[in-house]
Structure formats: C-alpha cells, structure tokens
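SEVERITY: medium
COMPONENT: batch folding queue
REPORTER: lab tech (J.R.)

DESCRIPTION
The queue accepted two submissions in a row. Attaching both inputs and their returned structure tokens so the on-call engineer can compare them side by side.

ATTACHMENT 1
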Amino acid sequence: MRLSRGTRAVLFTFVAVALAFVYLPLAILVVNSFNASKVFAWPPSSWTLHWWSLAVHNQGVRAALLTSVKAGAGATTIAIVLGSLIAFAVSRYSFFGRGVISFVVVLPIALPGIVTGIALNSAFSTVLPHLGISFGLLTVVLGHATFCIVVVFNNVIARLRRTGVSLEEASADLGASSVQTFRFVTFPLVRSALAAGALLAFALSFDEIVVTTFTAGAGIQTLPQWIYANLFRPNQAPIVNAVAAMLLLAFILPVYLAQRLSEGTGGGRV
C-alpha cells in the first residue's frame, strides 16, 4: 500500500515526536552526567569526568550494584526453570485448567507493584518466621521471580507455538528418544527465545524498586534503591546522574541482543 506524501509526513512527525519524548530525557541525562556544575544547568558551562570517577569508586554504589546483580541472577535462574517448564506444559500438553494456568502465570506482570509488594510482605511475614528465615536477599529474589517468570514464559511459549510439533514428531518417527528429541530438536528451537527471556527478566529484576522495598530486610539495598535514596541529597545528584548514565549505556547491548534473539526463528536438527 502506497501512502500519499502528506500521510507520510504526518506519520513521520508523530514518530519523531514520540521518539523525542522517550529519548530526549535520556540524552539530557547522559549529557548532564558530564556537567562540571553540581546543579543542573543547560547548556553545561564546562565538562568533567569527575562525577563518573566518584560513581565508580563509591562503596555504596558498588555494594548496591552487587546486590542487584545477585538478586537479578537468582530471580532469572528461577524464572528460566519455572517459566520454561510451564511454557512446555501449556503448549505441548492438553489438560484441564490449562487456560487458567496461563492466566495465573501472566497475571503478576499486570498487577501494580505496590499490590505485589504488600502481598509478598504479608506472606513472608506470616510464613518465613516459622521456617527460621528472615527478610533479606532471598526474599528479594523470590519477590522478583514472581514477575520474571512471566517474561520467560511469554518468550518460550510464543516460540513453541510458532514452531509447532512437526519436527519433534519427525524426530520421534525416526527413532529418537524423548531426551534426544529435546537435545537436538526442541532445545535448539527455543534456545534463542530462552536467552531473550533471561536477558529481559534480568533487566526487569535489576530495575525493580517497589517490590524490593517491601521484600528487602535491613541492610539490603539494591542499586535502584540507592539511586532513589540519594537523588535528593545535597551534592549527590551529579553522582546519581553518572550512575544512571552508566546503567543506560550498560543495558543498551543486552536489550538489543534480547530483541534480536526474540526475532530469531531458531533451528534444530534431527
């Protein structure tokens, strides 16, 4: 379908405005992280790497970053195992309540974070003391896993539904065992979708602050919590800008890889 010149101009304008609305604040953030002034001034009068240096050597930032990485890795591991298993069960088997399970698995991502946080805090406060477990990194990991599972589940089940079962049936007809079929056919088909789901789940966990606030114990602080706690403190805003700019640049490649992997069709061999 060919669009008129006027229609193309209107669409281009809308796209440009939308992209500017999303990316202009991010560009300003990166530029301002090099601003030599301690207060926001535009345009910056001079440039410096001082704030980046302070951010890199800040012990609070390092500790919070390590905590975020641990929480993200733990939540992603749980999400990969449970999300992929549920996706295989729902897409490859027929049983009573399959639609309900799909809905229940996806629901946590749609719930407001404050609701999930309160619910998890109440559940942990009721159950964990009887098990001798207190609030800490473990509760943060479990809290993040509740919505990270959804990301892995959606990626894997979409790939399984798109590829169908014909290759797996052909593998079985040729005498391959179920283990061989999974190793040489099924897993290569979903490998890229699983990797994309893992990257997105880690990013989602790394960014979470609301659920973390309700599930973290004393002494546990993730990087988003550190940023929020220091954003309005005197003389800390430039360092916060530098940390945020670092995170922005660091997550560009994982997000790009996740998109590319999600677009892949996968492949297998019998």
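ATTACHMENT 2
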Amino acid sequence: MIGASALAVGGCALILVAAAVGPYPIPLSHTTSALLDWAGLGRSGATATEQAIVETVRLPRIAAAFSVGAALAASGVVLQGLFRNPMADPGIIGVSAGGALGAVAAIATGAAAASALALPAMAFAGATGAVLLVYAIAAAGGRSSMAALLLAGVAVTSFLGAIVSAVIVFTSEQQAQREMVFWLAGGLDSTGWEDVRIVLPVVLVGVAGMLIFARDLNLLLVSEDDARSLGVRVGLTRNVLIVCASLVTGVAVAFSGTIAFVGLVVPHALRLVLGADHRVLLPLSAIGGGVFLLAADTVARTVASPAEVRVGIVTALAGAPFFVFLLLRHKSRAGAL
C-alpha cells in the first residue's frame, strides 16, 4: 500500500534527522553509523560522545515520541468510530483531565520531587480513576449508552479541569506552579529508556487489542442491530475498545503530559485519504501519530535551541490550522458533489 510505504519511508528519514539534530549536532553519516551500530548491523564510525548522545539521549526520546503519538492517534481512531463523531479525541472520556489532576497533585504534594516515578504513577492513577468515574455515571440507573458516556465524559472533564485550575491557583510556590504549567503543556524532555520500557509494551498491547476488534468496529459504524445480527457482541466489543483506548492514552499522558490534536488531526486526516476501514485506518493512524509527534518534538527541541518549546504547544500550533484546512477542503468537496 502506497500510504503505508510513504509513512514507513518518512518515519525512517525522520528518525535519522531527529537523531542528528539538537544542541550538539551530529553529521548524518555519523548518525547513520551510530544507529546501525546500536542495532547490531555494523561498526560505528561516530565518536564516543556522538554514540552516547544518540543511544542514551535521542533514541529513547524518539521511541517515546513514537509510542505516545501512536497511542494518542490509535485511541482517537477508536473513539471517533465508537462515538461516530470525527471530532472525538482521547480526552473525551476524561483520561487527559484525570491524568492532569494526578500530575498536579503529585507536584503540589511534593511526591514528584521525592520519586521520579511518582508523577507518572499518580497521573496514570488519575486517568484511570477519571475513566471509572465516567463509566459509573454513564451506567447509573441502568444500561449505559454511548450518548450517556459522552455526556458523562464532558461533565467529568470540565469538573476535573476546574479542580486542576484551583490547585494551580492555590499553590503558593512559584516553582511548583511552573512545573505544573510545563507538564500541562506536554513534553518529552526528561524521557529515558526506563520510561520507554514502561510505555512501549502497554501501547503495543493496547493497539493490538484494538486491531483484534477492528472488523467489529467497522460493523458498529453501520448500526448496532446489524452488528448483532452478524455475530458481534456489541457490549463486549465496545467495552474492550474503550478500555484499550483509555489504557494507552492514560500511560501516554502519564509520561508526556497533555498533548493536543494528535488524536484528533491524524485519524481525521488519514480517514479522508484511506477511508473508514479500521483494519487499515487503525494501524496506519498509529504509525502516522508516531511520525507526527516525532516531527513536532524535533521542532520543539531545535527551533529555539538550546532552549526547548513544549511539544504540546507545537502540536496545537501545527494541528489547529491543518485541521481547519481539512475541514474546509472536505466541505468544498462535499458542496461540489
């Protein structure tokens, strides 16, 4: 498939560029040699310093960007399909707001300073708790529906967002406030191999779970009654997909902060090109999300080098105009038919 080939080639080229650029630039030939040596495919022609920078600083950040981008885009595809709404994104069921509350709580209480894993752990716990709360509200009084889940998600997200704002306002230490704002803007600047070893397996398992139910998601797009008549266990399929989307989004948010537009723009853009078959759209959106976030992170750490711009700012600045362009283009095509 041309789309898959283009994403693969673009991704490989972007990995090479991302590993080469930065406050300490490395020639592309040395970067290629260092990457091949790391992969066990040849001897490195890079210096010891260049090899160390590539292996211990830039490669884990590249892997984290791909993992987080894939998680957000894949979750966006699933939630847009389940809600039958191209405007749905991973934050619609409260995951991002819950993760934000857990993170700011970790910073405000000093837990983040006491342990490196306290912040992502509390962020993940907050994301999980938010999803459970949304489920509980949607299911109160009887069987839940996607409409009830959507409304509950909007309500919980607004409520948790207000608490996050209150925590920031009432935190007296300016350094703690600064850390909260930085986390909320999203970033991958402190990512290491330890983080990748946690995030990547969860994302792979979650996306694989989504792919198993991709055909059933296609049938759900037609109607739940038609899906049932074709043997789809609608309740099970819906719950598994939401759990998988929540899981990968939660772990992504826990380690990267809140990053906007990846789960919205990438699935929508690829759906216009590839169509709505989730057996194709889901894996390519995961790859596309990884490529998009890696490109944004590369810009974020080089555009104001040696300082860094938060990657969430870059994705929003790039994603918002591009999304408007896609909407206008789609509208003009629809009007021409």
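NOTES FROM REPORTER
Residues 48-83 form the longest helix (36 residues).
No errors were logged for either attachment.
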